[in-house]
């Protein structure tokens, strides 16, 4: 469904709701560049911090796709939809509307993520990561390239390193608030990390690879 710019959230929900019986065993879904999609009300519920050990969708939503493992929401400019906890790979690239509150909602709703792409999410900041990082102990690949408000002033890289002990690849290219000293310290503390992409960090063009 990538680039279906005229597909709206209501039509998507109706399509999901048309499935009778158990939800479809769909493992991968791309809604990239579906610019008419709008966020579901459940995202606000997740972001509010309400504890629900067995969340159930209020009406049709992506939460019905309980076997979904890969979801691409690149450039869904109007927002994001709540995703099932089974999700392992998620792309939220080019989402200028994604805030720290939305990041925390994603963290609470998708604790099994192994690969997360957040490049060009210009509203994400250190405050969001301070709350979200601990929810992703399985994370192996993290792309924060061109996230202009992510810095290391409050130890964001250190927090990610402490929480995401299975991390293997980190991309902080073109993050002006991350300096090379922070990148080198992160690399030294995280011996299992095989690659840190750090092009144009602190004015340098460098990729640290073991």
Automatic annotation (TrEMBL):
Superkingdom of origin: Eukaryota
This protein's name: F-box/LRR-repeat protein 15-like leucin rich repeat domain-containing protein
Domain F-box/LRR-repeat protein 15-like leucin rich repeat as annotated: residue spans: 91-207
GO terms, biological process: SCF-dependent proteasomal ubiquitin-dependent protein catabolic process
GO CC, alphabetical: SCF ubiquitin ligase complex
Pfam families given in the database record: DUF7885
Organism: Aotus nancymaae
């Amino acid at each position: 469904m990538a680039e279906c710019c005229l597909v709206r959230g209501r039509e998507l929900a109706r399509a999901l709701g048309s499935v009778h019986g158990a939800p479809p065993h769909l493992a991968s879904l791309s809604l990239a560049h579906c610019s008419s999609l709008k966020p579901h009300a459940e995202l606000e519920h997740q972001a509010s911090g309400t504890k629900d050990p067995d969340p159930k969708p209020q009406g049709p939503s992506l939460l019905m796709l309980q076997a979904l493992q890969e979801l691409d929401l690149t450039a869904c400019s109007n927002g994001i939809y709540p995703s099932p906890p089974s999700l392992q790979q998620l792309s939220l690239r080019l989402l200028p509307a994604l805030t720290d509150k939305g990041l925390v909602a994603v963290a609470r709703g998708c604790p099994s993520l192994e690969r997360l792409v957040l490049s060009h999410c210009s509203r994400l900041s250190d405050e969001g990561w301070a709350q979200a990082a601990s929810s992703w102990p399985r994370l192996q690949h993290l792309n924060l390239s061109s996230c202009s408000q992510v810095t290391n002033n409050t130890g964001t890289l250190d927090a990610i390193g402490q929480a995401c002990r299975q991390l293997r690849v980190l991309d902080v290219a073109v993050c002006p608030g991350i300096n090379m000293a922070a990148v080198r310290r992160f690399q030294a503390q995280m011996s299992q990390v095989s690659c840190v992409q750090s092009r144009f960090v602190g004015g340098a063009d460098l990729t640290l690879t073991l």
